[in-house]
Write a structure and sequence with these properties.
With 105 residues, the chain is an alpha/beta fold. 40% of the residues lie in helices and 22% in strands. Helix 2 packs parallel to helix 3.
Length: 105
Amino acid sequence: MPKKILSIDDSRMVHMVVAKTLKPLDIEVITAVNGQEGIEKAEKEKPDLILLDATMPVMDGIEALAALKANPATKDIPVVMLSADSGKDNVERATQLGALKFISK
């Protein structure tokens, strides 16, 4: 069974780049366009890793990360923040909430 990665980002381009990059590795990429949709898909799909943008409509990445880590069904899924908004406050907050890494786009 292939590994699953959930890409939560409001940019279709990011989803395309992630999918194209991971295709040779036989990794299934699931996408969501905001934090709320991402939480729902994480609960349903149980991905092996979540790539999470910080700045999105409806629910931003920091709020989504807090909700994912507070939810018993998703708290153990590793989360890597992948965002253009890599200000010190965002990086520190994401790390405090349990993000594995913070990668700047």
